[in-house]
Write a structure and sequence with these properties.
The protein is built from twelve helices and eight strands. It is of the alpha/beta class.
Length: 266
């Protein structure tokens, strides 16, 4: 795995999380649309890094459609173990064999709906790295926690548990996605200032937990109802390095406007 090292400007990354949407045929068609947009865009492939994360049955079709485009293939989840009696689960090695180089870990929907804990997310991060995948690790507060002014407390707890014990080199091989749960799929979006402040909390916590100025080295994405209309204002914040995009990633033109906004932000 190639670590994401600290540079004068951290890489810009836009990842599309398709969630449980599209068939293999539909997903391949969407990926081909995006590949055509990428080929026609003079700003590509220099920036940003674009990652598509379809559901498991779509990986082969989407991977074929992305071949040669410069865009990366990712998955939405993995199991921490290498193999075994885990019906319905997939390992990192299986994902890598299917062409994935990236994987989303600890998405809020898995935390909220599937009961994933910080400890399980930590194990999955390490499993992803073990199998050569770059983990996009999600953190963020619920609506109740946000309303109780507990955002910082929650982020510090999640980051401390998940990144504890990682070396600086290991931490640099991860990407963080700040997802305020109250903004996911609701149409509500954190203001650029709220996103900036949350990202600064994450960076300060990484500095403390990992050391070596890890907070400044890691790419941190914002996720939560990102769309073509609000992406530019979010990317204008220097602490926001890109986006984890949900619903807007299911339509090629709207998703590419977000990619273009990231490219324009430099």
């Amino acid at each position: 795995m190639t670590a994401l090292r600290a540079v004068s400007r951290r890489p810009r990354i836009v990842a599309g999380n398709w969630k449980m949407n599209r068939t293999a045929t539909e997903g391949g068609a969407l990926a081909r649309e995006l590949a055509a947009l990428s080929a026609a865009d003079p700003a590509m492939p220099a920036a940003p890094v674009v990652v598509l994360c379809p559901s498991f049955p779509l990986l082969e079709a989407v991977g074929r459609a992305l071949a040669g485009s410069g865009m990366r293939l990712g998955a939405q989840n993995l199991h921490a173990e290498t193999h075994g009696a885990f019906t319905g689960e997939v390992s990192g090695a299986m994902l890598a064999a299917a062409g994935c180089a990236w994987v989303i870990v600890g998405h809020s929907e898995r935390r909220q709906l599937m009961g994933e804990t910080d400890a399980q997310v930590a194990a999955k991060l390490r499993a992803a790295q073990r199998d050569g995948l770059v983990p996009i690790v999600c953190v963020g507060e619920t609506l109740a926690e946000y309303q109780a002014n507990r955002t910082e407390e929650v982020l510090v707890r999640q980051v401390t548990t998940v990144w504890h014990g990682l070396s600086l080199e290991g931490a640099r091989g991860t990407v963080v996605a700040y997802e305020p749960v109250w903004a996911i799929g609701t149409g509500k979006v954190a203001t650029p200032e709220q996103a900036r402040d949350a990202h600064r909390v994450i960076r300060a916590t990484l500095d403390r937990v990992v050391g070596g100025e890890a907070g400044g080295a890691l790419v941190i994405l914002y996720g939560g109802s990102v769309n073509a209309g609000n992406a530019a204002s979010l990317f204008a914040e220097s602490d926001v390095d890109g986006a984890l995009v949900g619903g807007a990633s299911l339509e090629a033109a709207s998703f590419w406007k977000i990619v273009a906004a990231a490219a324009a932000a430099g």
